[in-house]
Amino acid sequence: YGIACPEKAFLDYVYLKAKRGYPINWEKIDLSGLNINNLKSFLSHYPNFVEKIINVNRAVWVITLLWQALT
User: Fold this and answer.
1) Cα(45)–Cα(23) distance, rounded to whole angstroms?
2) What's the CA gap between 27 and 36, in Å, rounded?
3) What average pLDDT does the segment 32-55 reach?
4) Residue 63 phi/psi, 5° resolution?
5) What pLDDT band is residue 2 in, cutting at 50, 70 and 90?
C-alpha cells in the first residue's frame, strides 16, 4: 500500500469525521503543507458535503484571521 499524500489524508479525515457525525478539530490541523491544486483534484472524488464543510470553515478562518489582525 502507498502512503496517502497530505491532501488525500486531509480529505479522508474530513469525510470520515463528518460521515460518522464527529466534530472536526480544526485548531489542530496544519494546512500549511497542502497543495491547493492537489486538493482540488482529489476533492472531485468526494461527496459534495466535503467541499461544503471545507468552504464554510475556510470562511471562518479568514474572518478569525482578520479579527485577530484588527485587535
Assistant:
1) 22
2) 19
3) 88
4) -60, -45
5) low
51: CB partners within 8 A, 6+ apart: 43
3 state DSSP class of 3 = coil
| Three cell numbers, residue 33 | 503543507
- Backbone φ and ψ for 35, nearest 5 degrees, come out as -95, 120
* Spatial contact of 30 and 11, defined as CB atoms under 8 Å apart: no
Residue 50 in contact with residue 43, Cβ under 8 Å?
A: yes
Q: Which of 36-40, 50-54, 67-71 has the lowest mean pLDDT?
A: 67-71
Q: Please identify which residue in the block is written with the cell numbers 464527529.
A: 22
- The DSSP code for 46 is S
Cα-based torsion angle of the residue sequence 34, 38, 40, 45 in order, rounded to the nearest 10 degrees: -120
